[in-house]
Predict the structure.
Amino acid sequence: MAAGRPYEGFFDINDVHEYLRIYESHVRSLSGGDEKQVHRTLLQYGRTKGIIHDLIGRNLSTDEGIHVDPESIVVTVGCQEALFLTLRTLRRDDRDALIAPMPCYVGATGAAALADMRVLPVAEHTAGIDLEDLERVVKEAKADGLRPRACYVVADFANPSGASLDIDTREALIRLAEKHDFLVLEDNPYGLFRALDSESTPTLKALDGDRRRVVYLGSYAKTGLPGARIGFAVADQRTASADGRTGLLADQLAKVKSMLTVNTSPIAQAVIGGKLLAHRHSLRSANARETELYQGNLRHALNELARHFPDDSRPEVTWNTPAGGFFVVLTVPFAVDDELLMHSARRHQVLWTPLHHFYGDGRPRRQLRLSLSYLSPDEITVGINRLADFIREQCDVQSLQKGIS
Ligand SMILES: Cc1ncc(COP(=O)(O)O)c(C=O)c1O
């Protein structure tokens, strides 16, 4: 229950061939049957900002109610590259800083470290980012001569916490960004995996409209095919670059990308483009099977936890109840570190992730993350049985130690 990977049972190599063929015919018909153009588009070096930006634009308007000019979309090698390009572009000198709610996805803090950008931690509560703390951090940073350039946030089923922001918090976050002049980097790899019959809360980017405070970071790793490594950034802000010229932030990202990966593989883009075409630009219905599995796994894990640790039971173990996504966070009566993880792996044959990895300060917390996306319900039953044995054993060790001291 450590790997936050998508479920592999639905992967099919034949899909790749089919999607490639669909995209190939799409290019052929767009170019009026020009075979040279088909070859060039798929097999030659290509446009730095990518070739499936139109299809991504339609996908965003169909599934997320986000309506943007495709010129503001940069297709990237996974969302991870989009994150790095954005941070590297925003970082001009060492006064520039990224605000990040803690615990935070390590890919975001890791990309900030790679871009040599300082991270300002902000507290998170059960309903996501603590806006009061955010405002305090921004004011203090400015008083110290820093420039908080952006706030990173996963508004839907965050990694690792599973928390989601309600609509009022989303609105308030955008208003704060306007008031204090920073951008919001909305990373949304899990938003689609909510209950099939549930209403979605609008993304920050959909709420943003003409304010253009939000840079949207997308990933097709969970909704498309992880092996294609396709993600994107929507950066429709008009900003001044280092040389003083005003232009689209997307174009500044593309400048950095041209020195990093040149362009995203057109073959990989064609696979995702073909999938979007095959499903009329909507991945919500294309992922019905996956959503059902992830929702089922989540419910099953929560039931299994309740079976092992009913209300008022000892030891006291609690957990949050996300409405979707891949993760649940457990709070246990002892601090968890990597040494305990090794013990859990060796002795109890179960893996999970100590939460301190998502704080970046190395200080063990009494919390751990369970990933439920990669497993079958039977494996989850076995995993939680083993985890419960591990937790009871550690509580016994703790009371013994207390008794001795
Ligand atoms: C919150 C979050 N953002 C981004 C990513 C990475 O996305 P990609 O695989 O598209 O690079 C992940 C992957 O686990 C993630 O959890």
In short: Residues 224 and 349 are 31 Å apart (CA to CA). The domain at 13-282 is CATH 3.40.640.10 (Aspartate Aminotransferase; domain 2).
